[in-house]
Amino acid sequence: MTKESTENKSAEDISADELAAEIIGQAEEQVGEQLDTAAESISVEQEKINELELALAAAQSTVADQKDSVIRAKAEVDNIRRRAAQDVEKARKFALEKFAAEMLTVVDNLERGLATIDAEAEEQKATFEGVNLTLQGLLSGLEKFGVKAVDPQDQPFNPELHQAMSMQEVEGVAPNTVIAVMQKGYELNGRLIRPAMVMVSKAAGVDTQA
After folding, report:
1. Do 163 and 116 meet the contact criterion of CB atoms below 8 Å apart?
2. Which residues form a coiled coil (predicted)?
3. What is the Cα–Cα distance from 140 to 110, expressed in whole angstroms?
């Protein structure tokens, strides 16, 4: 091989190396540009994703708030409905309270009238039976509307139902026992509308004046 051919071959080799380097450089540059473009695209898409996630979170928060408001509103409506039902029930039960209290005066008068009539006397039997029938009819009518008598004779004294008018020591009777009913009490559907006026037994040696 001559010197000239050797120089020509070396020139060809150098030219190929440069060409390869240039091609590689261009390829790397293109890849870099594509990577930059892809990165920009990813960044834009990520921003969109972030915006969508924020919008979703806001929507979920709004739904949660509205759901809570609906639950509270429903609870309030239920409470109003329950209170209204209770008020109606109370009104139905105790609407007759004033009327019943007035009728108790009539009952008292009829009972006092019976106490003055001698049922054994022939001339007073008809009067007694008439007054007694009137009294029983009135009591029966009142009972239909929830009015019941409180007659605690020989029962333990109950300050929630009875009003003690006096106390007396009675041999053989336990203290705080109702020994006499001066005036019966009455309840309307379980609620006291008049206490029974009673005399109560006391323990021996107890001074009721103290």
Report:
1. no
2. 35-83
3. 14
Convert the pLDDT of each residue in 99-119 to its tens digit: 888 889 999 999 888 888 887
- What are the distances in angstroms from CA 4 to CA 1, 8, 22, 59? 8, 6, 27, 82
What are the residues facing 138 on neighbouring strands?
none
pLDDT tops 70 at residue 5? no
| Burial class of residue 89 (count of CB atoms within 10 Å of its CB; 0-12, 13-18, 19+) | exposed
| Contact predicate 130/162, CB 8 Å | no
Separation between Cα atoms, residue 191 and residue 85, nearest integer Å: 19
Cβ-count burial 129-151 (b if 16+ within 10 Å, e if not): eebbeebeebbeebeeebbebbe
pTM: 0.53
CA proximity to 149, closest of 112, 197, 114, 115: 197
